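Here's what a typical entry looks like (Ribosomal RNA small subunit methyltransferase H):
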Amino acid sequence: MTGSAHHPDAPHIPVLLRPLLRAVAPVTGTWLDGTFGAGGYAKGLLEAGADKVIGIDRDPLALEMAQGWAGEYAEKLQIHQGNFADLDEIAGEMLDGIVLDLGVSSMQLDLAERGFSFMKDGPLDMRMSQDGPTAADLVNGMAEGDLADILYLYGEERASRRIARAIVKARAIEPITTTLRLTEIVEGCLPRPKPGQSHPATRSFQALRIAVNDEYGALAEGLMAAERALKPGGALAVVTFHSVEDRMVKRFFQHRSGGMGRANRYAPQAEEDAPRFTLASRKATGPDADELDVNPRSRSALLRVGRRTEAPAGTIERKALGMPVFQGKLP
């Protein structure tokens, strides 16, 4: 989902596409791309042999942009606005494969007015679906302790309390409504980065974006929806971009492939313990040197792939996935 994608003719480079297609080969039947973006994975799947791809994206802009080229694929490509948490209902049929790319799309980062980027000035928005509370609503409306918890839980920001205090102090003077104003406040709380380190505002912006879009909740629901929607032998491929997402996907596959072991080894194996997925590898795949050259944004990407067994779908508790749980109140 990276590359420059705010113009229909701009290059769009889907992260880890080649290793993903290798891992899920052969690509046949009906696939679902739950994070459609600029359509890079969907095109890759169709070109690799999929008979049909169902694309889902929360962002109405993704659907608008696709109108320029989707017609080339006729009925082989169907695109829906929606959340991949509901992918089984949206698909309405059993699937041969599902792809989820959890990175924020470059068309969102590149458009300053969407408010995702700490590098460009725009309204502090960050809503993927363009509805509901904005990042500005959170920053100006949350209690200091809740704001600190969001920054720590969702952004792994160690200076969360200091940043929350600075935000509350600044908003008392005037509301924080733009991305660069928030960036300035966060930068004032942290040391200047050394060469090669990420921008000081990276973790805070990530945390707010995840909270605004309930990304972890959608991921937990989406993984369970994928288990329900895949045919036996169907592949689930997930590309993550930071440690919390990768931990959730890794634990999901561990639990669902029998890799966590039974709580009591003397108890008979329950139906619930039957593996739902098999894993070709317990290790994640990262980008190779060629991909890093072409697409520097892929540096933190990790791919995990599982294949559905014949065991009936079940449910898994969110806490079993190591999902950070925010106990406070969102505005």
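The first helix runs from residue 17 to 24.

More examples are in the samples folder.
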